[in-house]
Amino acid sequence: MSTLTDPPKESFRLSMLIHDTRYRSLTFQAIAAVVLALCIWYLGNNLIQNLRAAGLNISYGFLADPAGYDINQRLVEYDSQSSHARAALVGVLNTLLVAVLACITATIFGVIAGVLRLSQNWLVSKVMAVYVEIFRNIPVLIWIIIIFTIMTAVLPGPREFRGDDATSSMLFDAFAFTNRGIYTPAPYFERGIFGSVTLNWLLVVAVLVGSFLGARKINTWATAKQEATGLRPNTLPIILGVWLVPVLLLMLIMGLSWEMPELKGFNFSGGIKIGGPLIALWFALSIYTGAFIAENVRSGIQAISKGQSEAAAALGLRQGRIMNLVILPQALRVIIPPLISQFLNITKNSSLAIAVGYADITATLGGITLNQTGRAIECVLLLMLFYLTASLLISMGMNIYNSSVKLKER
Amino acid sequence: MNNSVFFGALTVAGLAAGAAAAGTLDDVKARDKLNCGVTTGLVGFAAPNANGEWEGFDVAICRAVAAAVLGDPTKVEFVPTTGKTRFTALASGEIDLLARNTTWTFSRDVDLKFEFVGVNYYDGQGFMVPKELGVSSAKELDGATVCIQTGTTTELNLADFFRSNNISYEPVPIETNAEAQQQYLAGACDVYTTDASGLAATRATFDDPTAHAVLPEIISKEPLGPLVRHGDSEWGDVARWTLNALIAAEELGVTSANLSEMASGTGNPEINRLLGTEGNLGEMLGLEADWALKALSVGGNYGEVFAKNIGEDTPIGLARGLNAQWTNGGLLYAPPFR
Questions:
Q1: Using alpha carbons only, what angle is made at residue A176 by residues A171 and A179, rounded to the nearest 5 degrees?
Q2: Domains of chain B by range and CATH?
Q3: Given CB atoms, is B171 within the 8 Å cutoff of chain A?
Q4: Closest CA–CA distance from residue B46 to any residue of chain A (Å)
Q5: Helices A276-302 and A140-154: crossing angle, nearest 10°?
Q6: Chain B contacts of A36, Cβ < 8 Å?
Q7: What residue stretch is flagged as signal peptide (chain B) (predicted)?
Q8: What is the pLDDT of residues A147-189, one digit of tens each?
């Protein structure tokens, strides 16, 4: 006969923290946490004590003081009497501008080079292999300087456009390529609907958004029709119309005109100037990171089993459609995660801007402001905060996109 | 624990522990080498010559201090610094003395906690333009693109000058003089602005210096001098009086030609005190009695150093101007050696 008894109830003993596997890991984690906290406390305390000993105190009051220096490329109102905080904002916008531009072009370069590297054409694939190997194996700082130097040395100065026997002339009398940057005509409205220029442009953007939504509706309708009947209606003319007609109409109503760049005094004035430093930095970041992205794309495509393209070919799809409809959508799942880190690299590498005199956040806040105020710790902390925030936001955005393209598992 | 956190922490600790210790004089003596911050290369002021040895007007100060303290003008480690890195290098103790045509300003002295030991060159900010532009005054520069070294006082002066004259310009910030020179010659900017002495030095290295003009306007006061860290007066005194010794020697007529003769004693008690044959000024500084003699034996007195590196007979060709002795209508005035 057997009786069921409760197992003897073990009382908790201190030694169990080490010897009992149920508690051991907790014990070590607690110890590690305490040690980590002590380390952080020690370092923080050390910093504060040394700063006090050196007679320095952390204060952000300087941000409100007039900056006293000028910046050549500014997306918001700024002059030398604006505050250091304003100068930092100008730098932030410049950093974001070059980062966004470079992310877009690097992706385009990368996808083209990655796909072409797998081309059947021996010459094309080898040329792309050479591009990838040359550009990703030379530091980006050197590329930035090379491109900038070539630009300033090869393109003519504004002086050479002057006079009757000028050695250089403007393209179509509208574009001027100089060693200080490219000048293009600037659009403006002669009779805007609103008094403010910004509002007029916002109206244009609103119309474009409307066209986008309309075009999507048409696509959905065409897809539904295709699924119902097996025939996809030719939507191209309708979509072109939806995109172009409202915008062109609006431009006509508001009287779109172009302000041409003109040589006045030392420089061209009027029109839009795309500065040489911006072009050099943008282009260098794009081709450098594009080489890395090309490799991501290639590995993503090669990760798709050959059976997929063979099956698609067996269904009678052409090469281009196989790539667009079968291979790339699947390859995106492999490509997106490493692409995130390439975008982060672009953002961080844009801090090399000062090498060509581009006024990004590292050049304004971390360069001139730091130097003129001597507030090194404060400025560097702010810089860290900015790059951390920007990188986390990019990661977040790309992760959301990644989850939208990844394999939906049920 | 995550390894990178640990190493990151070590780095921060290292930075935090790098606060400057007092007793630079003892440190220099113990190290038997003076760490001297200079420019990354400005001919006439500090640049390596064909043999890789640093020479120039600022370099001479470093060598004189090294000779006074260590008895050997070659015991100097030259640390090239940019406008941006120079103050961090000095504050962190990486260099003992900064002789890098640095302008003495209130905020650098008081807020950044440095001590300027004197002025070795009275300068002012000027503009250089190619002659073909036909500009004769800085006020005609409306709309010009201006190359400027970032992290310097010239950057602020420039903004003030254009604002007060109500004209516009476009700044091109540049890290070093060499880059600025390249940009200017390539025509990426119309004007190069920096201290007038620096402009003259830069122009001297051009293929055709006569094609470029320095405009007459001097838009600021730029007293350039060597500096040390705040709070170590003993070391500050050594640097200050070495500079003063060079200046006083010129006033007293002590040159490298008659130095050995005068070192054996003269009828002028001030020269005797300076050269250590009378009194104990060296001992007061914590140096040998003949410290000034050694400093002067490197390149002679201030006037000789000036003439050899940047004077009118050199390609740089600067006149003494404000940098003449007070007895000749200049501003150089060394306090008495007593």
A1: 135
A2: 3-122+224-328 (3.40.190.10), 125-220 (3.40.190.10)
A3: yes
A4: 22
A5: 130
A6: 1, 5
A7: 1-21
A8: 998 988 888 877 777 766 666 667 777 788 888 888 888 888 7
